[in-house]
Each structure stands twice: as structure tokens, then as C-alpha cells.
Amino acid sequence: MSDIVYALRQLRKTPGFTLVAVLTLALCIGANSAIFSVLHSVLLKPYPWPDSDRLVYADNSYPQLGLQDAGVAIPDYLDRRRGVPSFEDSAMFTGASMNLAGAGEPEMMTALRATPSLFTTLRSTAALGRTFTEDDAKTGAPATVILSHDLWKTHYGADPEIIGSTIRLDEKPVTVVGVMPQGFYFPDPTFQAWVPFAFSPEQMSNNERGREYSKMIARLRPGATADQATREMKIIQDQVALQIPGLGAFWKSSGFRGQAVGYLENNVAGVKRMLWLVQAAVFTALLIGCSNVAGLLLARAVGRERELAIRTALGASRMRMVRLLLTESVLLFMAGGLLGLVVASWGLEALRLVGLANLPRGFEVSLDPSIFAFTLACALVTGLAFGTIPAWSSSRNNPSASLKEAGARGSAGRRTQRLRAGLVVAEIALAVMLASTTSLLIKSFLAMERVNPGFVPTGVMTAQTALPKGKYDTPAKLAAFHDAVIARLLTTPGVKDAGATDFLPFSSTFNSGSYTSPDIKVAPGAPEPHALQHSVDPGYLESLGLTLLQGRWFDATDTATSRKVAVVDRVLVDKYWKGENAVGKRIQWNKEMREIVGVVATVKSASLDEASTKESIYYPLAQVPQATLMFVARTSGDPALLTSAISNAVHSVDSGQPVFDTLALTNRLSLAAQARRTPVMLLSAFGAIAMILAMLGVYGVLAFSVAQRTTEFGVRMALGATTGNIAALVLRSGLALIGTGVVLGLIGYVALNRVVESLLFGTTSLDPLMLAAAPLLLAIVALVACLLPAWGATRIAPAAALRGD
Fold first, then answer.
1. Do residues 218 and 92 share a domain?
2. Counting CB atoms within 10 angstroms of each CB, which of 92, 176, 535, 655 has the fewest?
3. Which helix or strand (DSSP H or E) is residue 586 part of?
């Protein structure tokens, strides 16, 4: 306790030093805590279901068709539920947009169709009422629903009598049988209700294989592994292939397989590497900041050499001196850690502004007790690690030399200088590694931003509707709704073009399927052609700004009763008819032969950095009507002005039909790029912090060197050295530190460049220009940091320096 009291007294005597050290540590430790809270919530923390680490996806994959995760068909689910011994329980689910009737405006709600076994698989029970039974999922059973706690509270006033009452979903009466507990979600909080997933006899037959619009989740038995479950699914697959030879041949050519993948592992696969890289970057900044504080402690110890020498002369042991100095260091670091919690809180708020919610489980990120523990542990460990260096070095002073006031020029001063120089070289090396990584990721992101998506996103507003099947139960009704809305939109002031589709680029949904063609020769054993499938109307071409390359687009003559036609993209043409005219060739889809009437440029579907190897086929919406529609309206002004125009057009046709997912097309592209933009912004910020801290380290060690060598410089100038000679001497010392740090940093980056390689687009991890630019910029800034100490050395008066000796 006496050491702590004494340490606090010493820190109060030097408020400037204490403030700088604590703020530096608070910034670095707080940033680490903020990023670790994201890492912990997204990658490390279990889901809020018992033994969630045993949950796996059990979906299909077609590697030869470019479909790594294709969902699962109902017969596949039934086979695996019955025949995979490694599965203790399993469930099947698919998303559904449903119209929720209420007293006010019509509202679209995101619901989940799930087999009753979902809740037993998750080991979750209802807070009110019950979860589903198998009777709820029988064909013809009374419609039931389970509400989320939030929906129950916001829409039904947390009415405890809600169980057994009737609400209207998609204009049908549905009985509420349960309310889930507060905090429960699956698969994420946007899903506000669960309805039974009922299978018809036809859906359970082999004819349904390949219709993979759902997902399967399973709970592994204790001791079972995902690899073991995958092997058991392969056994079932081989048995089915023998029973259905035609299907078996397709499975073989497409590389079909069932695969069990950890639920958490699958959900975070797209962000895992980038998050770890950001954590490494902020940890690098922490190391640099701690090195700076260690350097400050070393410099401070030099000013206390006489005090420490007296303590030693009076009998204080070396370990006693180490403990005394280490106590001060740990107090500094702990104070920085406590203030770092405030910085971490601010940091999380800033992260939410730059797209934290777009990360998997981003909604769960918070400063929970584990983050508090991490922050304080981080402060304690760094305090001990970086406090030991100056404490051990300072305790080695020669007491007799220090008492004679020669310590500043003795071994202690040189030893301290070498330690500080070593710390600064390490700082520069780490800053070079971080700056090189950041510069390459920035170049990669800018290259991605310049990619042509295949359409013109500016001036376009989009919005979605999902028509209830009970009300719109025929193709004619679907077509009539579409035609009426488009006609209303085209008469709206400010709307230049309007169209509709069932699948909009950079939205969250897509549809794909196999097709055949008498004009395509498939090599024996090669997979069948497979494409993204779109239903679009005549106005979609101009509304989205697609580029027509050959033939024509759809028009009013392409009706439900006219000849069947299609438009394909350049990827399909280059794959099968390169150098030929594709117009007039044929494709067969859903047992219908269609004539190709046009070719359009390739459109990016999900991200600007995708390879665009999957072809696209467009069908007239009049011939392939859809209940889910994305309306697209183009204007020459601000697309936000069309938000109400689309809603009004829909409500003028059907006042009870909700409009949702209203978003400008440029915003959709921006959201798709968020997964890359946010880490690049964070890396840039931490790179800048690291550079500033490294430069402060360079300045500090050179300023300390000048102070230590005051007498030497006085003697040199007395013997004829010019101010230029003195400045050059200081600059050479600085350049030696910078050069060593830059070389070590480049060696370190090259050794670890494979970590960055997979995250780049349009550039290589060893881009010579960027690898030269980042260290050069760092070296220039570091050189500037050398100038002030060099200038200070030239201002030393020889007579004053010699008198000081």
C-alpha cells in the first residue's frame, strides 16, 4: 500500500507526463476494447440457445455449378432427419413476408415458416402459451402463429390474454398459440413471428428434389462432429442416387453433396478474416502506444536518477526499486484502462454510425462484463509488460555515479537511449506493416468502387411488395396488379421510367436453376447449364439502365399467350456461343422451350467484387408472373422524392397491400460495399493513429538524445563544428532509426502478406508501388519529426553547455 501511495504522489508531481501517458493509453486500450467487443459478439460469443456450439447447417452444395450453399429440399430434409445418426434433432425453415392487418396502415412483417421441431432443436420454450406441435404442421390444420416478445409488446400491448386470440396474416385468420421470451430470436431479430411449415404429399415426393428454397438446422449428438454428419449424409445421397439414376447422374456432374457446417462458422465466414485483421491492426496501435509510454517512463526515470541512487545507497534492493517503479507503471496503465472504457463506449457508437448493424450479429455488440474484464486485463498485462522494461533498466543505475551527477552521461544514459531507440524501431516497423496493409486495402476498395455494375444506379428508387397467395391466387390477378401499378407510376410527375422484377441486384434474394438447350453441347460428365433466373417487365431495361447488346428487349407483345421468349446475358453467350449471334437460339426451362430474342450486358448480382461467372436469364413477367415484386422507378432528380410515389401507386390498386424495403438503388450498392468499407475506414484510422504515435516516438527519442548529449555538442562546436554538422549528426541518428524500422516493417509485412492476399480485389498483396508508397510516406513524416530535435541541437550555446558540465 505504501508503494501505491508513493506512486500516486509521484504521478501528481508530473501532471503533464501523467496526462499524456493516460490519454495515450486510454485511446489505444479503448480502441482495442471497442474492436474486441465486436469480435467477441460476432465471432466468439455463443448464440443464446443452450449448447449452441452443437448446432449446424445441413444444406446442399453444387460446387461444379458455383453454388456452395444451395439450401435444402424437403425430401433431403426428411431423409437426413430420419437417417443421420449424428443428428439429435433437426428442423427446416424458410423466410416469409406476410401482411399483418391492424388498425392503421398495412404493415409487412418478416416471419419464418418452420417445422415444429425448430424449438426443440434450439431447446427453447415459449414464455406464454406453447410452441408448435406436429399437429400444427399437418395439411389442413388450423392456422397458428407464435409471436416474438417485441411484436407482442408493440402491437398487442403485451396483452397476457393474447393466447388463443385471432390475428390476420395475409388476410387470413390465424390463432396465436405462443409468445417467445424477451431476447429470443431466430435466425435474427428481424423475424417477428413463426408459422408452421406444412408439407404436402407432393412436396415430400422425389419430384420436389432440387427445389431448395429452405434451410436445415440440426443439433449434433454429444460427441458427434460436423464431418461425421457429412459422411452420413453422403451415405444417404448414394442410396438415393441408386434409386433415381437420372438424378444420380446430375448429382455426379454437378458435384452435389450434403454438408454439415457449424452454425456460427457459416454465418460469420464472410467477415471472419477481415475482423481478425482489424483486431490485429488495433492491437498494433496498442503496442505502439505502450512503447511510447514505456519510452516516456524511461526518460522520466533519467530525471529521477539522483533520487533512485539515494534510495539504493540507503539500502534499497534492486527488486525493491523495480517494485516501486513498476507500481507507478501499473497505476498509469490501469488509469488508462479505466478511461479506455469510456473511449470504448464512444468507439462503439461511432462504429454503429459506419455500419456495425450490417455485420452478422451486429445487433448484439455491447460492452458486457466480459469486455470490462478484457479491458482491465489488457491494461494490467500491458502495464506489467511495458512497465518492467523501464523499471528494470532504471534499477541498474550506479549510485555513486548518479550522486556525482554524472549519471546522465554514464552507462545509464546510454543504456536508456538504446532501449528507447529499440522501442522506436519496433514502433516504426509495426507502423510500416499496418500502413502497407491499409494502403493495399484502400487501393483494393477504390478498385472495387470503380467496377461497372452493369446498370445505372443513380436516380433510381426501389420498393418491394409481397402479394398474399390467398387473394392473388391466379396468374391473371398477379398480372393485373402489376399492370395497374406500373400504369399509375408512369403517370406520376417526375417518373421517367418504371419497371418491375422478382429479383433486384444487390437485394437479399435471388433465384437460380438449371436449364437445357438443343443449341448447347454439354461434354459427357459436365454439369448441366445453370443460371440466375429473373422475371422482368418491358420497363425494367430503361428503369435499371441495362445495356442491350443484341436483338431486342421485351415489349407489350410478349404476353402470357404469345410465344415463349427469353433474354440472356453476355456471360451465357460467351460460355456457350462465343463469337456467334445468340438471337434465335433456344433454351428450355420448366419444360418450356423459349427463343432468345436479346442479349444484355452482364449485371453484378450481390457485390461489385464478384467474379460474374454465373449467367443470367430474363423471362417476361407476363409469362412468368410473380407474387413478390420489386418496383423500380427512375427520375432525373432526387430518387427519395419517389418514395411516396411508389407507395401511392400500390395503394391506389390495393389499399391493404404493404410496401416495404424502400431504398434508393445507390444505397443498396453502398450497403453491399459496407462489409469492405467499414474495415478499410477502421484500418485507415488505426493506421493514422499508429503513424502519429510512431512519429511521437521518433521525436521523443531524438529530443532525449539531444538533451543527453548537450555537453558533447558544446564541445564539438567549441572545436569548430558548425550548426549544420550538429543538425546532420542528429538527423543521421533519426534516419538510422527510421531506416531500420522501415526495413524490418517491410520484411514483417512480406512474411505475413498471405493474410492480406485473400481480402484484396484488383491488386496483389505485393504491389510494388503501394509497398513503396506507404513506407515512403511514413519515412517522410518521421523525417519531419526529426527536424525539431535537430533544430534544437543547433541552438545549443557552447559556453552554456560547457558551464553546465
1. yes
2. 655
3. strand 586-589
